[in-house]
Design brief:
Blueprint lengths: L1 H7 L2 H27 L5 H70 L12 H7 L18 H6 L1 H58 L11 H13 L3 H17 L4 E7 L1 H23 L4 H14 L2 H5 L5 E9 L12 E10 L4 E8 L17 H5 L14 H7 L7 H8 L4 H6 L17 H26 L21 E8 L1 H5 L5 H6 L7 E9 L2 E9 L9 E8 L12 H12 L11 H24 L25 E3 L4 E3 L3
Antiparallel strand pairs: 1-2, 2-3, 3-4, 5-6, 6-7, 7-8, 9-10
Helix pairs in contact: 1-3, 2-3, 19-20
Length: 664
Amino acid sequence: MEVEESKSRDKMADLSTFKSTVAAIKDSLGVIHDLKMGNDPTAPAEICEQRIFTSLAIAKLRKLNRLSHLGSFRAKDTTSEKRIKSDQYHLQLQNLLYEVGHLQKEINKCLEFRSKDEELNLVSVEEFYLKLPQKYLGSVYIGLLFFVEFEVTKTSEHELRKARLQWELEQRKLLANKLSETKKAIEESQNDIQLREAKLESLAPKLTKILEACFYQTSAGIPRDAFEQDRLQSQLAKYLPQPLFVLFKNLNALQYHDGKGNLTATIEGDMDSARSFVSNTTTKDEDSDSDQEEETHKVSKHRRRMASVQEENLESRVLKQHPLYINLFLQCRSSDQLPAANQGVKVQLYIYYMVNMNMVTVKSELVDGSSAACSVTADDLLEANSILSSIFPDDHGTTCPSSFSQSQLDKLAPSTLSNLRAKIGTPFRWAQRLAGLSVLSTEVTEPKLSSVSVVVKKLKTLVLNRVELVHQLADLEKCNLAVPSNSGELLPRQLPQTKLYHWSRCTFEDFSELAHADEYVKSGAVTPECIIYLAKLTCFHVKVLAHVSISGDYPSTRPIVLLKIEDRQPGECLTRNNSNAIRCIEREINLGKIEETESIVNQLNLQLVRLAWCCDVLIAVNTHETGSPQASLHVKFVPHCRRGRDRQLPLTYNSTTGFFGYSQ
């Protein structure tokens, strides 16, 4: 009953009834409270009546509460049903939207679809109708070719496309058949070639036996391949550039004139590349002539040529070398004036021609100089490039030989010639002159080259002298300062009192910082190309520091010795700036007499021994003047201490008397 009643009741009426009932209960409870507080004899009856009224009001509230809960339950059920229906509708909507999106994607795929036939380059429609056989027009043919009626292809693009694709398929099948037939023909030709090569190879041993039986050069003492080698060299010489051809002819003449195998000049490189290089050069010249004759084609050819030049690598274009080069082999044998220990030193020179720079470069190596490399501080002296830069003064190959070569090199900025020497070689000026190229020189007194033999002779002498110098430096590193056996009558046979105890390499920067070396640096007597060493000698309380500068063309140019003497006891250091005695010693060492004998190759050792004896003389004179007891060790070689206004020392040894005297 209450369930049905809750459906028909008004919620707002129930709310007002609830509020009035609560107010009545409050009033009734107030009345009961007042009655209990008063002394009215009728109060109990009235209180009982009020309790009954209050109980009925409470029962009425409970009924309203039940009805409210039933209505709430019914509203929740109704809301749940509505929510479920709403979720169902929403899910159906989401499904429909997903189906719409999926269909839209499929539609886009269909719209964006590109068939493979669209990538084919089909013949044009006009060409298609021209090439189509006449028997297929106006009819339907089913087979390898499938065409619709001719009139339908004119009105339907789809049918026309199908017909063109079928025509393309037929044409490709025909071409595939031709390709297979061509491959078969190639295989047959290759098999035929292999059979013929096998026959020719079988003939090779027989021909070799015939040649061995008929070779008459062997009986005459001529190598079998000598004529073949000469023939090959003659063929290669035809493709040499003019500078290398001039140089090769001179070297070849010198080789035949020598006749001892000390010099061998051969042309090496790829003959096919050289032949194509010559043909390309000729073609370019012809194109240049035709450009001058045909003015109308001049602009187009120039543009093509400029475009090809821009595509090339700039560095490879500027540094382009000719495919052929000259291999020069030198056997440096010692002559009667040189020690026998220098025999067997070999030098290999590779001479190239830079096409676009119009210059000759040289790469070199010391083939058999490993046995001489026994010095720690002089291992770089046996580098072949260091030797080649000493053939003529101020010709180190660090600058371009002509202004044209320099202008070409400037295109590779910031590259310099020193950075490129390892790649292209060194452009020595003497190499340019031997090849007949003009060289611009700023030197007033430039050395003249009479022939190739002059350069070859100087090169051999420099190699042998450099090897001997390295041997001397190796002994000096071990502090072995011995009197040369071939020194003639220049020095006493016994050893001096002054001993060498240190020998090391010194840089040009350290040398130029010395106060007493300023005159040598400014005058150019000592340059950055010189090899500088520091020698330390000692005798009793005296310490001698000697800077030795060795030029690249040693022993043609005598080493320069710069002295500084220090006393272990407190005292002033003696140099050429403040001591006339030091200047006398340096003059005697650097300008003293050297006999024209084998001692010239031992010039460095001879100068250092003479330095030690000069120090002995100086110490002997000083100790004699001061009365020191050490003077007795040296005074027997010095009869007179000093002479002249400048107090000149007796530094020249007289082998007849066995004493040190004066040069004048």
